[in-house]
Specification:
With 145 residues, this protein is an alpha+beta fold. The chain folds into 2 domains: 30 residues, no CATH class; 114 residues, no CATH class. It is 23% helix and 29% strand. It has a 6-stranded antiparallel beta sheet, with helices on one face. The longest helix has 12 residues.
Length: 145
């Protein structure tokens, strides 16, 4: 059914108004957000706010589509901590820890990175080891050094 819906939608799509074609996954009506692997809305809202401010890193565009799909509601007050190859979206700080969605390149695996927020705050955090060249995971707790 989803394939048929996407084909019909693309046949009737105005390519001037919607440049990207519809995908079959756009029509998975009964699949839950968890099964679709879509991030929480707060992370999407934070990412879109960073894009509006022109502070979303280019290397993190691999996760943009999922974040855009998830975006809903107002962005958090603290949008992110961003480094050269790692980022924490919608971070929550407590004690000597920070929790949020980590997005990083493999060069940050297991390393300590200095991260700066758009408002100018700076932290140092040790990143976990991921898998693949790029990695993103929600609700990760990192040690602040």
């Amino acid at each position: 059914m989803s394939l048929l819906c996407s084909v019909l939608a693309n046949v009737n799509r105005d390519s001037k108004k919607k440049r990207e074609p519809y995908e079959m996954s756009d029509f998975f009506l009964y699949e839950s957000r968890e099964d679709m692997n879509i991030p929480s809305s707060v992370y999407g809202a934070a990412a879109l706010a960073l894009i509006d401010m022109k502070q979303f890193p280019n290397w993190a565009l691999f996760i943009y589509k999922d974040l855009r799909t998830a975006a809903d509601g107002p962005p958090p007050k603290l949008l992110a901590f961003i480094g050269q190859d790692a980022m924490i979206l919608a971070p929550m700080e407590y004690d000597d820890k920070v929790k949020g969605m980590i997005v990083c390149m493999e060069t940050a695996y297991g390393e300590v990175r200095e991260l700066r927020s758009p408002c100018g705050r700076v932290i140092k955090a040790r990143f976990i080891r991921g898998s693949g060249k790029y990695y993103a995971q929600e609700n990760v707790e990192l040690d602040v050094i």
